[in-house]
Design a protein that fits this description.
The chain is built from 6 helices and 22 strands. The chain is an alpha+beta fold and 377 residues long. The protein has 4 domains: 97 residues, Beta Barrel (conserved putative lor/sdh protein from methanococcus maripaludis s2 fold); 92 residues, Efflux pump adaptor protein, beta barrel domain (Elongation Factor Tu (Ef-tu), domain 3); 65 residues, Beta Barrel (OB fold (Dihydrolipoamide Acetyltransferase, E2P)), CATH 2.40.50; 63 residues, Orthogonal Bundle (Helix Hairpins), CATH 1.10.287. It has a 6-stranded antiparallel beta barrel. A 4-stranded antiparallel beta sheet has the order 1-19-18-17. Helix 3 runs antiparallel to helix 4. Pfam families: Beta-barrel_RND_2, CzcB_C. Keywords: Transport.
Length: 377
């Protein structure tokens, strides 16, 4: 029985040694399959140049989406403060206009009544002013009582207030009270464009009655149209006012629009965990309309990272590799993960194991071809 235990123990030792040897052989084969060995003549002809990882600042690109927006001061809703019927208009969505241009004409009998009240009050005010001055002189000479003088003064001031209020109502409907007379009373009043721009919406048709609260037209001044981007909170600290970016639409991705960050919101939306970033177009394109979706690419400067020249990276079977120097004539193809690239240099991620290693920074493709030819033999 004791001999049986001894034999079993020796069997397992031998089996373990064989297994360890097989694993070692497997690893050696794997290393050997990725190892390129060159003769001195081959090394000279291949013009291999070696170097080490180099610290560089490489820009990364933040890709986001947004929408073309208009600031409140550039979006105007036009209404008629006293209501009325739309008599005429030439506005259509997309039509351009200039500030001060007549964009519509309104009509209503209340306009006539308002003008009548103003002119009547103005006439009465002239008489009340004369009566007030006359009673003032009489009162000073004790020819009239204080009561009569005070009533004349009250009538004069009341009419003056009424005339001033009616004049402001006339200005609301674009009638100049200073030029109004009984000869130019009109049932129609114009609506003038308050800004330069184009028409966004037309909400009425000719002959329709509108209330004071109804919006007739929506007008847009494109001079300050901007791009409103949604930036996630993890990226918001990477941005700054004045930072440059490019934007493009899905329909014309090749057409880039240069922009600059003007404002970064300090409020993070709780649902999306994002903030709004407002950007100004360097040169506004009239084909870009409010509400249109756009993509944007923002260049971010990173801290110094480990890099190699782009030609040091080779791609084989869908993976990326560097050739690490084993000794003067031996190069081991080593898998790496790459990050951002800029100006002919590529970032190497998780580069700690390669920090002190020499790498083939030139001639890496030649080494890969040599390795492939070796595998085919």
């Amino acid at each position: 029985m004791r001999h049986i235990h001894t034999i079993a123990f020796l069997f397992f030792i031998v089996l373990g040694c064989n297994s360890k040897k097989e694993n070692q052989n497997s690893e050696d084969q794997k290393v050997n399959s990725n190892l390129v060995i060159l003769s001195d003549a081959q090394l000279k002809n291949a013009a291999i140049k070696t170097g080490k990882l180099e610290k560089r600042s490489i820009s990364s690109t933040l890709k986001v989406t947004g929408i073309i927006d208009v600031p409140p001061q550039n979006l105007v809703s036009v209404s008629m403060p006293l209501g009325g019927y739309l008599k005429s208009t030439k506005l259509l969505p997309g039509l351009h206009f200039i500030k001060g241009e007549i964009i519509a004409t309104m009509e209503d009998q209340q306009y006539v009544q308002l003008q009548q009240e103003y002119l009547t009050t103005k006439s009465r005010l002239h008489f009340a002013e004369k009566e007030y001055e006359r009673q003032k002189e009489l009162n000073q000479s004790q020819a009239s009582s204080d009561k009569v003088y005070q009533m004349a003064e009250a009538d004069y001031k009341t009419l003056r207030i009424t005339a001033s209020a009616l004049a402001e109502k006339l200005r609301l409907i674009n009638i100049n009270p200073n030029t109004l007379s009984e000869k130019n009373i009109s049932k129609s009043v114009p609506i003038y464009a308050p800004i330069n721009g184009y028409v966004s919406k037309v909400n009425v048709n000719i002959g329709k009655y509108v209330n004071p609260s109804d919006v007739l037209f929506e007008l847009i001044n494109p001079s300050d149209i901007h791009l409103n981007l949604k930036i996630f909170e993890k990226d918001i600290t990477k941005l700054s006012i004045g930072q440059k970016l490019v934007a493009y639409t899905n329909s014309q991705p090749e057409k880039k629009h240069a922009c600059e960050i003007l404002l970064i919101s300090k409020d993070i939306a709780s649902e999306e965990h994002s903030a709004e970033v407002h950007c100004h177009f360097d040169n506004y394109d009239k084909t870009l309309l409010p509400g249109m979706y756009m993509n944007a690419e923002i260049e971010l400067k990173s801290s110094a990272v480990s890099t190699v020249p782009s030609e040091a990276i080779v791609t084989y079977e869908g993976k990326e590799y560097l050739f690490v120097v084993n000794n003067k004539n031996q190069f081991l193809m080593t898998a790496v993960q790459t990050g951002n690239s800029e100006n002919g240099f590529v970032e190497i991620l998780e580069s700690e194991k390669l920090t002190s290693k020499s790498i083939a920074i030139k001639g890496a493709y030649t080494l890969l071809m040599t390795l492939k030819n070796k595998a085919e033999e």
